[in-house]
Amino acid sequence: MITITKKEEIVFNQIKIFNLEYEEGIPENIIKIELGIYEHELKEILKELASKNLITYSNKKVKLADFEKDITAVDSRQEVIMADLDVKEKKSLEIIENLVDEDKTVPKYLLEGNLLYGDLKLSNFRMYHIILSLENKGVIKPINKIDGEYYLLIE
Description:
Shape: elongated
Number of strands: 8
Structural class: alpha+beta
Strand order of the largest sheet: 2-4-3
Distance between the termini: 23 Å
Largest sheet: 3 strands, antiparallel
């Protein structure tokens, strides 16, 4: 199952409508005018739909991809992320949310220590797998500060 936001669903449905009319690909401008949304917002949505293999997007043209999966729409980007996380990742995210400071950062050593020796008691391999998975899903981002390595919680 693929989870998308309501805005992504609106754009995706419009692409399905235009798909029959434009065999060479739907010009991005046509979608923008039809839906009345900003160009930067449309590009972000199209890139997200392309990353989920629902469309192909190149040279300002959009084509509907062949897909067989069910699509579920949720209200926000945060709900999409939560739907894609497994149980351990969700629990790890809760730990991260409790550890972050007002800048939404947490020291790398503090996060790793809490995942290894805290409530979850993860193995080294599982801990790094979860951290990498959260990075790949755009939930956290590694950053360097003057005093060391940190993770930034992205909302």
